[in-house]
Request: fold
Amino acid sequence: MSIKKLITLFTFLLYFSSNLYSEEIYTFSNVEESNMMSDTEFTDFIRSTIILQPEYLKAIARKGEFLENKKYAQRLRFPTLEAQVYNDRTISRDISANDYQSALRKTRDDTFDGIVSIDQKIYSGNEINSKVRLAKEEMKISDIDRDQIASDLVLQAVEIYVNAASAVLISDYATELLSKLQKYKDTAKARFNAGAIENSEFALINIRLSEIEVKSALLEANKVQNLSLFFSFYKDDYNKRGLPKLKLSELDALQISNSIETYDQLRSGREVNVSEHNLEITKSQYRPKLGFAARFTQYDLDDEAEDQDIRGGFYISFPIFSFGRGSAQVGAGKAKVQQAKINNDVKSRESKNISANVYGSFLGSLTARDRLLDSYDNVRLQRETFEIRMSGTTFSTAALLDAALREIYFYEQLIENEKKLLLADLTSRHLRRELLNRFKLVL
Reply:
């Protein structure tokens, strides 16, 4: 395909998508208002459920762990103050007294001393600063994880809700229609006994009616399954609360592919910083260290305790050679940094692919929306027309049942498409990190 054709196609798609949003679009707009729940009610219901979920509470509690880790890292800058009592007494001694100087050197007085010492690190190879930065990065990651868990829970909660609500609506629709058609089974039997219809036509009527009954039974089973899952998640019965009437957001391909980073992209970017800070901590172990130490000693606590001294000064240590351990450990840290950067690129590509798929699903459902509604209206009108004409003895009952079966099918497809449209819209908000604001979950 030439560049000119690609530009023309892209321009057409942009124009088409903009026309789709010339008016405000709401979910399940083809459903009667009596079967709907308002935006405010649905938002409050979902929000009140999310804040009680154990995954959400766990994410909140986990942040406290990283907060304490940050405090610990920051307090490594403070000096270490220690107190100890040193009790060293001779239990047994066997030293030759022939050599006075040797005996004097080997003989130690009994001591019972009190010591208070302080150690202040001045330079530790940038270890403390790196640990503080690492703790801050881990806190930011915990915030990202908390928001992502909450956003995932919103998507899960909405999907469980609309699955149950749509299953109830479709099943009730099929059950109600089937109850209207049951009378034609007795009518067909009476006409068959009277010889008004052939055996083949009577058999066809029974087959068509059985197909509707099977379809209704399958829809009922699906309803029971979704209601069970609804109760398990929400700890409450559905009670025909209604499908949500939500305004769809305005999307286009550029907004999705080049918008704010997703949660996975943010997290992988922070993980690169974490790996770099860990590398810096590893390097600090093989750098010089400078500090100041002082010690106060009170001698002979078990006696007069009159003697004391204060000693102290600066100290410095230089690592010279570690037989390759340092270079190997640093090399492993550099490899982890490179892995984190590659993982960040992978997450970026995956996010773009997911975004493109969501946009395609949204645009496809929106495009099919009017066509499905037209098809459903046509077949419903056809079925109602057939019912009116059923007073005529020459009209085929099988044709009516065929229309009713297609009506159930198109109604199911219509509702499923609306559900798909809603979930695509909310998934797009999730990818753009806007879903929590949409449901007023400010963390």
